[in-house]
Amino acid sequence: MAEFKVTPWDVEGMVDYDKLIKEFGTQPLTDELLEKTAVLTKSELPLYFRRRFFFSHRDYDLVLKDYEEGRGFFLYTGRGPSGPMHIGHIIPFFATKWLQEKFGVNLYVQITDDEKFLFKPNLSFEDTKRWAYENILDIIAVGFDPDKTFIFQDSEFTKIYEMAIPIAKKVTYSMAKAVFGFTEQSKIGMIFYPAIQAAPTFFEKRRCLIPAAIDQDPYWRIQRDFAESLGYYKTAALHSKFVPPLTGLEGKMSASKPETAVYLTDDPEEAGKKIWKFALTGGQPTVKEQREKGGNPEKCVVFKWLEIFFEPDDKALLERYHACKSGALLCGECKRYLIKKVQEFLKEHQKRREKAKDEIEKFKYTGELAREQWDKAIPEPLRR
Amino acid sequence: MAEFKVTPWDVEGMVDYDKLIKEFGTQPLTDELLEKTAVLTKSELPLYFRRRFFFSHRDYDLVLKDYEEGRGFFLYTGRGPSGPMHIGHIIPFFATKWLQEKFGVNLYVQITDDEKFLFKPNLSFEDTKRWAYENILDIIAVGFDPDKTFIFQDSEFTKIYEMAIPIAKKVTYSMAKAVFGFTEQSKIGMIFYPAIQAAPTFFEKRRCLIPAAIDQDPYWRIQRDFAESLGYYKTAALHSKFVPPLTGLEGKMSASKPETAVYLTDDPEEAGKKIWKFALTGGQPTVKEQREKGGNPEKCVVFKWLEIFFEPDDKALLERYHACKSGALLCGECKRYLIKKVQEFLKEHQKRREKAKDEIEKFKYTGELAREQWDKAIPEPLRR
């Protein structure tokens, strides 16, 4: 069996997701839970759930029960602004948007400009604040409800510090070290950071649901250890797989290797060229062989990208699968199809991203939920 | 020679202050510096300086130079709100008030309700916030300029978190451990705290002067290590001695032993009884012996309290000294004199403390300096 490694700071090799569920001690996202989701939302499931891009969870059953019984829940996710966002970063936000829309719940998006500055030796605070702005535009472009979504930067919404304090009294150096691998040379800001990341799970006295890639799960284990002792819920989570890099099915896309990813701000023409040049397919070495033996969609990044995001039509995807297997479809055609889909997406996203510049103030400060949170943060005499 | 120990969390034994200057590597507060202070402020020095209650410093010479050459400086001090304040806590605030008034400079007073909650296992966050309110009243009663003084609680003025981040990227766990003695079981909030305490030294792009008891000096050594690398000044400090407990010249007053201290909120009658009962004097066992041999003002807490704070008249103090040495003065008379002075002080202080309830908003939020700091902390769209 292929070796693989998944930690919050590293994903290597071909990931065995069933094994990951056992290793991390999470639960598989069952047919039953997905059916219940469809029933409660009176909606068809989007491809992220239908196709098991989200495949594992913690306490999602309890989230649905809370919703069913009127206690409700809220969503929390985040982004570490250390560079531009790519396709792999944005897909979980689309799944989150679906959840917000269908369940009608609040969403908190933490932009951890403090974390990225602290953990990246070569980034200045100015850098991460600048990336925060850029990344927020991409997030807004997904189309969240501006009155039910609060996007906050840790360096600005510093009320988060006060909320982190009781958490930081529950977590010892030894506990944090076990999860994050700190050493004597770790900076004291890094050591404190887990408290800042856990704080938003207490923004409401309801259960918190975090949709995120499974590598983020260890961060929440500490929260689940002490949450109840502070009178709150253990946070729930929905875990996604990774979007594979263009260059192969192993690992995840990396900001330091531009050929592995399509960035949301890439020029569509250039993105097309990049896919054409770097995308790994499951095809045979020659057209002749392909016609005879057929391709391997299971080993094909192009097919994976279509499956995960770019081909929402199940019937079309299945036809493509069989056409590939039978040798009727050649890799060039398939790549061109993906390129068209990616370019359409980028054009549309970039248009919405431009519009987001006018909406940023609402999501960060003046929307209903944002205003409510800031009102709690600013002392009364200064609000007059 | 008597053993003694001075760390930020413990003072034991009879302190040898000259030895402390050598051990801590600070500078003695020389006649020359005090004369320069008098000249620059065009004022007579108050007893705290005249009588060397402040006895040591770091870079106070540079502070005076900055002032002289028009660059100015600012003052920073603080209070950890874990209980009521006593005489020993308030005296450095009087010295600070003198410095503010005479140099006309800004003062920042940090109320560390986060620190006390994090470091005291038995205090709740609500407890330290409540003590913050009580302590702030005592501090305001000292008579600071409400437009040049910003009193802020860490749990409220959380902008401090953002300012602490670049500091927290400079300090490793190992550095913090060396100063604070952290262990594997230390809470991650405690480990981060040194960054929060250092942040106010960067509130202005001028040199910061911290008047505080010498046991606080180690906290600032870390600041002095990295300040210049962040483009700021190493902080300067003026170090005071400790006000001895009523019960003897060793150690310092302790909140856990009420007989050692006079609290600012003590009923003046009760305070008088406490002094009468517990104050250690340098007297002889009998009146007869006292008349023959004379007393020991050097070993007398009553005399020390008069010297440090309650007898500002140098001539009167000297006469008292000689009267004691000669046997003319008995301990009872001296105690009664101190009691009268303490009671007068308490009555006056408690009156001003009552008035402080109407001024608290100005010092915390709406005074000129407070407003300026909050304006930096609240994002523009929320200030409209």
From TrEMBL, chains A, B:
Belongs to the class-I aminoacyl-tRNA synthetase family. Residues 339-366 form a coiled coil. It is an enzyme of class 6 (ligase). Catalyzes the attachment of tryptophan to tRNA(Trp). HAMAP family: Trp_tRNA_synth_A (MF_00140_A). This is Tryptophan--tRNA ligase. One of its GO terms (biological process) is tryptophanyl-tRNA aminoacylation. Its EC number is 6.1.1.2. The keyword Repeat does not apply.
